[in-house]
Amino acid sequence: MKKIVAIAAFLMLLQGLAFSQASDLRLGFQVSPAFSSMGTTDDNQINSNGTNLGLKLGMRGEIYFRENYAFLIGLGFFFNSGGTLRHENVSDTWQKSELPGGVLRPFPGGTDLKYNLQYVEIPFGLKFRTKEFGYLRYFAEVPVITLGFKSQARGTIEYSGLKKDKIDIKKEVNGLSLSWGLGGGVEYSVSESTAIIGGLGFQRIFTDVTKDYEPDVDSKAYISAIILHLGVMF
What we know:
The protein is mainly beta. The chain has a single domain (about 1-234), classed as Porin (Beta Barrel). It has one helix and ten strands, in the order H-E-E-E-E-E-E-E-E-E-E. It starts with a helix and ends with a strand.
């Protein structure tokens, strides 16, 4: 399944680049702060208990097939995605990782497990914008589907006054993720060909983030993020 998704994404990228040869193409970059948190499905004994402050960096392209309608495509990094999950009951997760000395296994009830993840992301989507009012245009981006590849995974364990961080948890996190999102904001033209972008977005990974998340529990972990879009388009 992962190979099929990766091949489909690659073909979409080639199609977009080919289409851009006959269409209007704008390029730009973003430096976007993001606030992410984690949650689970079907298990009320594992709850979200903290937010990560992360950062999105990357390039993006807008391929206009009409004056105010465009395909979106990009390539970037999502640094420090994730969040903290509290296990209310005794937990025996993170079984594949080498844990530091002094950490009990299984973890006692009330343990916080923090995920600090980094993804390489390839987003695809549609953009709709208004006509220009003075120097401003308003826009919406929906839907935005993002293919993510895990590049780093660190974790922190905290319970009963004990705290251990910078634990390598790559083996506990799935290598591929899929997310959906939407956003909106404004473009401010500073010249005939350059605009500053500002807006808000939402992104949610809907595939299971973790591997063997909790033995004998049919639960999936997901990540939701609020993004402050900041960028420049040329």
